[in-house]
């Protein structure tokens, strides 16, 4: 079962997770960090940037993005290559040579998954994986029906995801239909998975993911079987959880030595 931490605001969540990551990087400067795109992790990246300005050094961290659109050139401002470079690599001072994003080029697409898996394997796996959750219940771009053992591969985005991501494009039709995404099995191999979810729009899917049945119809529900998942939610995203009071009590009384 995931540890669910409910905090007042996204900034509080970001501070909590940024302190944890900065502490882990201090212990292991070569930590492997899994990074997500979308809106949810942005406050975290801003908080990590502040830690960097205060002296934290992320230059030897290796990073793996969860996914990439198929067919957008890396220089397209909404390709995840470009987003990760802009939001993560530059502000956090990562070494671009250690930052990896799946290859969404149409040419060679049939091997993009296995090439990405090999890179993750060679890095020794992901230590801390940041994920958001989509309205469809996806993590990465593993839409409903994704296999729990799936590895990095090409997926087709559901209409709702394309509508949700149209805010980054001029219209929904410009949002690519296909992506290359880490599989649920890939994500589940990360040693620690941290989910960030904020706002009332996430309340229903968060409750289904963590308190509903484990089913590939809600791909994020696979996380219920992972030994170390931390979901950090604001009050709104937590508002449909049946056991919210229990999660609060557990966190308030958590021994400090346990960390995140
Ligand atoms: C992004 C990703 C997606 C997003 C999800 C939530 O790399 O893999 O799963 O995390 O769609 O997006 P936001 O945070 O924009 O609500």
Describe the protein in words.
This protein is α/β, with parallel strands linked by helices. The protein is built from eight helices and ten strands. It has helices at 10-27, 42-53, 80-92, 112-122, 159-165, 184-188, 203-211, 244-252, and strands spanning 3-7, 32-35, 62-65, 67-69, 99-100, 128-131, 153-156, 178-181, 192-197, 229-234. The protein has a seven-stranded parallel β-sheet, sandwiched between helices. Strands 4-8-7 form a three-stranded antiparallel β-sheet. Helix 1 crosses helix 2 and helix 2 (42-53) packs parallel to helix 3 (80-92). The longest helix is centred in the first third of the chain and has 18 residues, at 10-27. The mean pLDDT is 98. Fructose -6-phosphate is lined by residues 36-40, 66-67, 132-134, 138-141.
- Element-level helix/strand string: EHEHEEHEHEEHEHEHEH
| Structural shape | globular
- Biggest sheet details: 7 strands, parallel
Per DSSP, the total helix count is 8
Overall radius of gyration: 17 Å
Name the strands of the widest sheet in spatial order.
1-10-9-6-2-3-5
Poorly predicted runs: none
Mean pLDDT: 98
Estimate the strand proportion.
Answer: 15-25%
Number of strands: 10
